[in-house]
Specification:
8 strands, 33% strand, 178 residues, eight-stranded antiparallel β-sheet
């Protein structure tokens, strides 16, 4: 059942109450930080990647948007092929969660929202693109790791099965069986 949820001074969100266990998510690092985290990388217990984006605050909560991503999308983002808006719009789940976090870092008031129903005030407008040096060290390290990860995929060569034994064993004069 869909309902409207008012996040205090922020626009109304059309979505459904959801249950997410905070303990099922682990923060890997900050991508952007300015007087506090703005964009953070999380994984859940199934090792799925999520981005948590700061949306605003009031006297009681910091308001965040949590959405699933994957290595391919993150790699495209870090290469400048997609912006932060497309990173949200291309989420594999086609929905995001809005989470209120109190001063004790407890997750409250979780709402599941279809991507098409996210108010424009919560989306990055204009969309911005990754630029080297703009991100925290964790973000730069993740970019480097993803570049390496995807470059290795391009360097894998298939060896025909009948040749595999020739590659695996050195020539006989250098190799003695016991």
């Amino acid at each position: 059942m869909s309902k409207l949820v008012n996040k205090k001074s922020l626009p109304l969100i059309k979505g459904e109450p959801a249950v997410l266990r905070q303990d099922d998510f682990r923060k890997l690092g900050e991508l952007l930080y300015f007087e506090g985290p703005l964009l953070s990388h999380f994984v859940n217990l199934r090792n799925e990647d999520f981005i948590m984006k700061w949306c605003g605050k009031d006297h009681e909560f910091n308001h965040w948007m949590l959405y699933k991503t994957n290595y391919e999308l993150l790699h495209q983002f870090f290469r400048g092929e997609i912006g932060d808006l497309e990173l949200i719009q291309k989420t594999p789940d086609e929905h995001a969660y809005f989470v209120d976090i109190d001063n004790e870092i407890h997750w409250k008031n979780i709402v599941k929202v279809e991507i098409s129903d996210i108010p424009a005030d919560y989306l990055p407008l204009p969309p911005s693109f990754y630029e080297l040096g703009d991100f925290e060290p964790y973000g730069e390290n993740l970019r480097t790791y993803l570049d390496l990860h995807f470059s290795r995929l391009n360097k894998l060569y298939k060896i025909p099965q009948y040749q595999a034994s020739l590659v695996a064993e050195p020539p006989s004069p250098q190799y003695r069986k016991k």
